[in-house]
Every structure is written in structure tokens, then in C-alpha cells.
Amino acid sequence: MSAFEDKRFLIVTGKGGVGKTTVAAAEAVALAAKGKRVLVAMCNAKERLSVMLGSDLVGEEVSEVAKNIWAVNMNPERALEEYGLMTLKSRVLYNILFDNKYARSFFRAVPGMSEWAMLGKAWWHTTETRADGSPRFDVVILDAPATGHGLDMLRVPKVIVDVVPPGLLRRDAERAMELFRDPKFCAVILVTLPEEMPTTETIELAAALTQELGIPIGKVVVNGVLPPLFSREERAELERAISPSDKVRNAGDGSIVAGRDRAIRERVQAASLARLSRELPVKPAFLPLLFDNASTPHAIHELAKRV
User: Fold this and answer.
1) How distant is the alpha carbon of residue 195 from its chain centre?
2) Nearest partner of 48 among 69, 73, 28, 66, judged by Cα
3) pLDDT(240) > 80
4) Nearest to residue 11, comparing CAs of 137, 120, 150, 129?
5) Long-range contacts from 180-183, C-beta under 8 angstroms, 24+ separation
6) Mean pLDDT taken over the chain
7) Considering the entire predicted model, what is its pTM?
8) Taking 80 as the threshold, does the pLDDT of residue 24 lie above it?
9) Span 29-50, mean pLDDT?
10) What is the mean pLDDT of residues 91-112?
11) Average pLDDT score over residue span 78-101
């Protein structure tokens, strides 16, 4: 079960294809099971969350997708419009200042403005309240873009603070950056696979987040972990038994090849897990490789028990 019920903002990121949305969905289900009201905010993504939660397609409007879980697939231009309206608190003033071709061209030309619009919208949802003054959402989960784009998105508030003159935009960026650095408020969940390249990218991303941006790492989730079948000695013996260049002549050879391939994968997995444990600031958590479809409500609920 998720250990993040005391956080207000979770940022889920990692290399593309490692299962970020799967982990975001599992965290949302785990938190909702504890009675938390959770919003999952996606960044103009190819929408898969609805399949995982068995809901209608998630669009640009915040909608309830399961008990205690809401979701939105943020569009940069729509998010910028919402940000302008929230800042100016006047549709008339917004139309004068923002809703014209010159302003739209200017904002499209500003580096990072689209990223800030989505990041700022996700952060703003942590400030929303209901009629009784309680938070509309207890936890907002940002399903951030993959490693490089995700890091660029998280750099934007600092860039704004460094280059933008004092005003509303810089004020909001300063406030957001302060909260992202507060471990009581925010945590990053890094998602990876037990493979060499995702492991390297995860370690580099963790260093950039902590050393460059000062954003705390709350959890590292290693997705798709295989249960080991062989000892270290057995793996070495299988790898020596038959080389990739040898021809498979019979069923026995085929079995040895299958065992060798599994042994190689286990060796790479063991090395990756050891490196992640050694070089990251938090101990990794593991999610098993599901041999059935992991993008089903049943699979997500099973993973939610382990995040």
C-alpha cells in the first residue's frame, strides 16, 4: 500500500516505456483505498489510464474515474488559458491580454511556457478547496513526461525565477518551486526497469533532481522484476553451455538456449538492482513482472497492494 498519504503532490517520472502510468494508477488506487481523494494529472499523453481503471476516456476536463479517483489529460493551450483566468480572475481581462493572435504567438515562443502551464495547473489543483474549506484533492499525482522532457518541465519554475521580472508569473513559480522542494509536501517517484539503460538514466535523473533542483526523491520503483530461478553459479554455467552463434539442433539445445537467455536476463537484473541500491538515495521497491496484461483494473489493484 502507498506510503504517501501525508504528501500533497507526487511526481511520477522515468524513462519512456518503463511503466510510469501503471505506477501512477497503482499509487492512486492504493491512496484511494485509504480514503484519500486523488487526482491523476497527465501531460497531453496518449491516454491509457482509462483502460487501467476501467473508466471512460480521460479528457481535458477533470472527471471522476473511480471511487475517490479523478483524472485529467492536460492540454498545454487549455492549461495556459486556465492559468491566465486563475491569475487575472477576469474573463474580459483575459480576452484582452491573452486571447489574441499576438499573445498566443508570444507564449508559444517562450521556452518552457507550455510545460509551466501544465505543471502549474497540476500544482494549482493542490490548492483547490471545497465549500467547507477542505482540499478538493488530498493528493495530486503528476504523470510527468519521460526522463528528458520531465526534467525540463521541472526546471521551468527555476528558469522563470532566474529570468522573469517580479510579477504574478514569477511569484507563482517561486511558490511552486518552494513547495516542490518541501519533502513534507512533495515527493518524486522514479520508475525504472531492471535493465542497464533505464538504470543509468534513473541514476542520472535522481542526481539532477536532488543536486540541481533540490527536489526530494520519495521512492524508486523497479518495474517488471523477475523472480530468480538460478543461483549465480547456475547462471554462469548456463551462459557457458551454449553460445549465441551455436545452432539449435534439437529440443534439448532449445531448452538450454531458453535457460541461457533467462540466466542472462537474471544476471543483468541482479546487476541493475545492486547498482540502484548502491547509487540512489532511497532503497528501491520492486513490482513483479506480470505475465498477463498489466493494463487491466485487476492488475492495477494487485500492483496497488505492493507500491
Assistant:
1) 18
2) 73
3) yes
4) 150
5) 180/9, 180/11, 180/123, 180/154, 180/213, 180/215, 181/213, 181/214, 181/215, 181/216, 183/216, 183/218
6) 86
7) 0.88
8) yes
9) 95
10) 54
11) 61
Record the cell numbers describing residue 65, joined without a space: 474515474
Residue 2 has pLDDT above 50, yes or no: yes
Residue 266 has what pLDDT?
A: 94
The answer, yes or no, to whether residue 96 has pLDDT greater than 50, is no
Distances (CA, A) of 124 to 41, 106, 176, 238, 259: 11, 23, 9, 55, 52
pLDDT digits (tens, 9 = 90+) for 137-164: 999 999 999 878 888 899 988 888 887 7
DSSP string over the chain: --S-TT-SEEEEEESTTS-HHHHHHHHHHHHHHTT--EEEEEES----HHHHHT-SPP-SS-EEEETTEEEEEE-HHHHHHHHHHHHH--HHHHHHHTSSHHHHHHHHHSTTHHHHHHHHHHHHTTT-B-TTSSBS-SEEEEEPPPHHHHHHHHHHHHHHHHHSPSSHHHHHHHHHHHHHT-TTTEEEEEEE-SSHHHHHHHHHHHHIIIIIS-PPEEEEEEEEEPPP-S-HHHHHHHHHHS-TTS---SHHHHHHHHHHHHHHHHHHHHHHHHHHHHHSSS--EEEEPPSS-SSSHHHHHHHHTT-
Contact at 8 Å (CB) between 201 and 220?
no
Burial of 240 (0-12, 13-18, 19+ CB in 10 A): exposed
* CA 65 from centroid of its chain's CA atoms: 18
Residue 272 has pLDDT above 70, yes or no: yes
Radius of gyration (C-alpha) of the chain in whole angstroms: 22
User: Given pLDDT bands bounded at 50, 70 and 90, which one contains residue 83?
Assistant: low
